[in-house]
């Protein structure tokens, strides 16, 4: 085997791995988990200023 054959085999293996990752990423079975992961940064979002003001006014009335 010469270096050209080894490079060709390596290129083919990387290509197959790339196709596998693309199929995995765009699989419809994964859509729900990817959508959930996309919303994670917003999960611990602090309340908006108007909501904080309403909460503060409610606690002052009690």
Automatic annotation (TrEMBL):
Residues 39-62 are annotated as: Disordered. InterPro entries: Cbb3-typ_cyt_oxidase_comp. Residues 45-62 have a biased composition (Basic and acidic residues). Keywords: Membrane, Transmembrane, Transmembrane helix. Pfam families: FixQ. The chain crosses the membrane at residues 6-26. This is Cbb3-type cytochrome c oxidase subunit 3.
């Amino acid at each position: 085997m010469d270096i050209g054959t080894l490079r060709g085999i390596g290129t083919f293996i990387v290509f197959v791995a790339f196709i596998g990752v693309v199929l995995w990423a765009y699989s419809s079975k994964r859509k729900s988990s990817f959508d959930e992961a996309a919303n994670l940064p917003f999960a611990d979002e602090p309340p908006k200023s108007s909501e904080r003001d309403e909460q503060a006014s409610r606690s002052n009335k009690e």
